[in-house]
Amino acid sequence: MIMGIKVSLRSEKIAVVELFGRIGGQIRSPVYEKLFDRLRKDKSCKALVLDIDSPGGTVTDSEYIYHDLCRFGSEKPIVSNIRGLGASGAYLIACSGRKIIASPAAVVGSIGVISIRPVIEVLLDKLGVDINVTKTGTFKDMGAVWRDSSPEEEIKLQDFVNESYERFIDVIVKSRSISKEKVQELATGEVFWGSKALENGMVDQLGGLDVAIDVAAELANCKRKVMTVSPKKTFFQRVTGTFASSLVDSTAAELERRIWSGYFRY
Question: What are the pLDDT digits (tens) for 90-130?
């Protein structure tokens, strides 16, 4: 989309897709799945550049988008460009690219998994509110906000986090050709400037979007002809306009973040 005008990709060669915002919020896997599938089937689209500025997000959306991009990448080259923030799940997605380009001042990394949930047991007690639970299994209400976790539940939750962490590590080992021991040294949850990420092998080259497009054109052996592509607007977005829909999306994303904060996040 250029200046709000939808343009056909028929005469274009390289598609640039922006991934700005929180994964699972502004970046929703069902929406981008359709977009990437459309570009994969479009014979005039020779390569894909991911323009990334995201702090990460939910494990499920991050992994789903990553695997969907791997399908695209098995047929056409992908180049990831980290312009600002490529952290956590956003870095996982960036690893779908054959090459990763990062701005020297980009923030890269935060490799890890976190599960956060509020515990309001004391607050409920002060309000005189009791919670009555009827369940079928020992762990059916595991992670409930109205009580502390039991020792057995803490072990289960930690195992769940560890499993996601191992998948994250395996993706980086495979995509970046770095030893597992080296990746584990980097996977402490810390972040790196783009220049440092280049030193430790997390990115391939320093530069901006123009450099990423040049690399994509070289990999695809095609002309440097570019089109920025966005997901199709919903009916609500078409009716209410960009500002109103963005306001609603942001509000909904924040509500979702608060409600589902106990779930696992990259």
Answer: 999 999 999 999 999 999 998 988 776 666 666 656 777 77
Cβ atoms of 58 and 266 closer than 8 Å: yes
Total count of domains within the chain: 1
Domain residues for the domain of 80 are 14-111+188-265
- Residues marked active site are found at 88, 140
Contacts of 22 (CB under 8 A, 6+ apart): 54, 55, 56, 57, 253, 257
Please, where are the H alpha helices in the chain? 29-41, 59-73, 89-94, 121-127, 151-176, 180-186, 194-199, 209-220, 235-240, 242-259
Closest Cα to residue 194, out of 179, 204, 182, 183? 204
Write the CATH number for 217.
Answer: 3.90.226.10
